[in-house]
Write a structure and sequence with these properties.
Rossmann fold; seven-stranded mixed β-sheet; D-amino Acid Aminotransferase, Chain A, domain 1; single chain; alpha/beta; 4 domains
């Protein structure tokens, strides 16, 4: 059970121990029976995380100005009225309070322990925390996975100790947590030197403690409040997914704000997203890693393996998590999402009403770059505006200019635009009146909360009073046009949780082929055999030995010839491909020259022979690739194919496996395939068969030993004539990997 009131926390504990308190004070450790007596009160780790009746600081410094000494002051100033105990072996009095030498010497059981000790001592304290009755431990210390391979070993030892003790852990490398509705601040973040944090409806989960403080500070300046705040640190146990899933049922939380450096536990994040979607509680995320430099920073800061950001973007999108690119948008956008469901149907359209044409143009221009549809009012809306004495002068926006300086006019215009069926969102841009006369330009907006078309506001000047008024009314208001456009783009792109496709059955034939590779990467012939077992049409292939080439006169010239070697993944770059071989004599010369070239340039490569394939044409070429991303698991990629596939970077990515309908959506997304989709009456390619191939390759998700696979090119023939894969590549793990759900 959660503690009924913090006021009664100490009284409850004393009542539990009333009959044997004197005996407990004389002993260094409680018996199992006594611990069980406390556990029978029903305190769970979920209760202990944000609503503990009793907390303990281990390693609290006597100097309140230090990072390890400040948490006691933060907790007391926040208004926590539960039981507080201190462990410090070097002093019996710490910051004016009695301290004991060890966890074993605590006088009363504890729900939540904040470990402020060093890395090694944190690991050694876990069992003692459990013996003291704790359900949750928050660990400040770094030096774990954030400190390289040796630190990763220490983190593994910490995880094992926690599992054996039955404890849940926040961190390590965590600046702590806070429940702003109850005054429970268990944190070392200097941000809590500030007073007056406003309780709100947003739960903030951050992988960075420093960024957690920045978000809290900036939100506080705008009058935006939070319900729960967590610095998850290295997520050795409780991470964004687990804590978020638990908070879905929190009555004080309507929307989630995530700051992500990487995706560490995709499965837990999926469960969180699914539960949040069912509960109607949106999730917004800002994730590092858009650039290669950003990915490097993420690696060095968290010790995590950062995979493809494109894969992460697809992952978040398919989970219905709205991703923003601007840090300010993460702070200001939650009110736009809270209490609303994602769009399911037409592409959402935005209407614009403004008192400053130039200010509106700043946002509209940024929206246009992002492909957001800004629409002009329809005739019925224009007529309604005219009847209200408001003129529309053409274009895409309703520019009130001087007329907008009248409260009644601005209010009528807003109401008409919100009632217009052509708009899914109304952007209101306010000029100088938001700074000097907020009762005119801001108060009508503050009255737009509740049901109806959502309103987003950009205030042109620096208008802190206006921003505070809108925050109080739960209206999404933005200081910059870029953040405003970013939030609107995230909102209109927000499509909700994609239906999860069941894992495909494991085909026995494919399984046997994989076993035959014995954990070694196969050559192209072996890879082609595997793809064929999945149902991928492969081009006819003739095997030519290294030395003898009798009977080649009967081959179906012209031919493409390729080296056969498991050691050469990219044959073109190695000089292992020749095209348009038109005779037996030319073939013999080509094979000799190719062999000599590879033996010189790639002496380590074992040449098993050569492959000859008939030159087959098509309307277009595609690449279909599979990869087991280290962050999000199995993904499938479709791109324009051939040797220039990497140069063009024209691709569509989804989590694997995919359905036939999803594969067709991927095809429509690849610009290079537009020419074979019936564009301007050009011949249409057999895209249905291409979709079948994408589905077939995506079924590799069922085989955890496959870490990467590719067919490139896939030649797309005219509609009704199919498609065929020409080249195959397969990369296996050294040992079977666990499936990434």
């Amino acid at each position: 059970m959660a503690c009924a009131t913090n006021v009664d926390a100490l009284a409850i504990i004393k009542a539990i121990r009333k009959t044997d308190r004197a005996m407990l004070l004389s002993r260094s450790r409680w018996t199992n029976q006594e611990n069980q007596s406390f556990m029978n009160t029903g305190m769970t780790w979920q209760d202990a995380l944000f609503n503990p009746c009793s907390v303990a600081f281990v390693g609290l410094s006597n100097d309140a100005s230090k990072l390890t000494g400040a948490p006691l002051d933060y907790l007391c100033r926040a208004g926590f009225r539960g039981d507080i105990q201190i462990v410090n072996p070097r002093s019996t009095i710490v910051q004016g309070r009695r301290s004991v030498a060890s966890l074993a010497a605590l006088e009363r059981p504890v729900d939540h322990v904040f470990l402020l000790v060093n890395t090694d001592d944190a690991i050694g304290s876990i069992a003692d925390c459990a013996a003291a009755g704790a359900k949750v431990v928050t660990i400040l210390a770094g030096g774990f996975a954030d400190a390289g391979p040796q630190g990763a070993l220490k983190q593994a030892a910490l995880a094992q100790a926690a599992r054996e003790a039955g404890l849940r852990v926040v961190g390590p490398n965590s600046l702590g947590i806070a429940n702003l509705h109850s005054g429970m601040v268990l944190s070392a973040s200097p941000i809590f030197k500030m007073n007056g944090f406003r309780p709100g409806r947003i739960a903030l989960l951050s992988q960075s403690g420093g960024v957690m403080g920045s978000l809290l500070s900036r939100a506080h300046a705008r009058g935006i409040g939070f319900s729960k705040i967590v610095s998850v640190g290295n997520e050795v146990d409780l991470g964004v997914g687990e804590i978020g899933e638990m908070l879905v049922n929190d009555a004080d939380t309507d929307v989630f704000m995530l700051f992500l450096e990487s995706i560490r536990n995709a499965d837990a994040l999926k469960r969180f997203a699914e539960r949040a979607h069912r509960a109607g509680k949106p999730i917004l995320a800002y994730k590092l890693g858009r650039s290669e430099m950003g990915q490097e920073m993420a690696v060095s800061h968290t010790g995590s393996i950062v995979g493809s950001d494109r894969a992460a973007d697809v992952f978040l999108n398919q989970l219905g998590i709205a991703r923003v690119d601007h840090f300010e948008a993460l702070i200001e956008a939650p009110s736009l999402f809270a209490g609303r469901r994602p769009s399911r149907g037409r592409s959402p359209a935005v209407g614009v009403v403004t008192t400053t044409g130039g200010g509106a143009a700043l946002v509209v221009d940024a929206l246009g770059v992002r492909g957001v549809d800004v629409k002009a009012p329809q005739d019925a809306t224009i007529q309604a505006l005219g009847q209200a004495g408001i003129g529309f002068h053409g274009g895409r926006i309703l520019d009130l200019t001087l007329a907008g300086t009248k409260t009644a006019t601005f209010t009528r215009a807003l109401n008409i635009m919100r009632q217009a069926p052509e708009f899914d969102l109304v952007l209101a841009v306010v000029g100088s009146s938001s700074q000097f006369h907020p009762e005119i330009g801001v108060r009508p907006l503050a009255e737009c909360s509740g049901d109806g078309t959502p309103v987003v506001t950009f205030l042109g000047p620096d208008a802190p009073q206006g921003l505070a008024m809108l925050a109080e009314a739960s209206i999404a208001a933005f200081r910059t046009p870029e953040a405003c456009a970013d939030a609107i783009h995230a909102f209109v792109r927000w499509k909700g949780l994609s239906a999860s496709q069941a894992q495909p059955p494991i085909d026995e034939k494919t399984t046997e082929i994989l076993k035959s590779f014995e954990g070694r990467n196969p050559d192209e012939l072996g890879a082609a055999k595997l793809f064929s077992s999945l149902g991928v049409p492969m081009v006819p292939t003739y095997i030519l030995p290294v030395s003898a080439h009798e009977g080649v006169a009967d081959l179906p010239y012209p031919l493409a010839v390729k080296v056969l070697s498991a050691d050469i993944a990219h044959k073109t770059e190695a000089g292992g491909v020749r095209l348009n071989i038109r005779s037996a004599d030319q073939l013999q010369q080509t094979l000799q020259a190719m062999k000599a070239h590879i033996e010189k340039s790639r002496p380590e490569a074992n040449i098993a022979g050569f492959l000859a394939q008939p030159m087959i044409g098509g309307l277009a070429e595609a690449l279909v690739g599979f990869r087991r991303d280290p962050q999000v698991g199995a993904i499938i990629t479709l791109a324009a194919g051939g040797v220039l596939a990497e140069l063009y970077r024209d691709s569509a990515v989804r989590l694997a496996p995919v359905t036939h309908a999803e594969a067709l959506d991927m095809i429509a997304q690849v610009r290079g395939l537009t020419l074979v989709s019936g564009y301007r009456n050009l011949p249409k390619g057999d895209l249905a068969v291409l979709a079948d191939i994408v589905v077939a390759v995506s079924r590799l998700a069922a085989f955890p030993e496959v870490i990467e696979a590719e067919i490139n090119p896939v030649l797309i023939k005219e509609e009704g004539q199919g498609a065929v894969a020409v080249d195959a590549l397969l990369s296996l793990a050294k040992a079977p990997l666990p499936a990434a759900d």
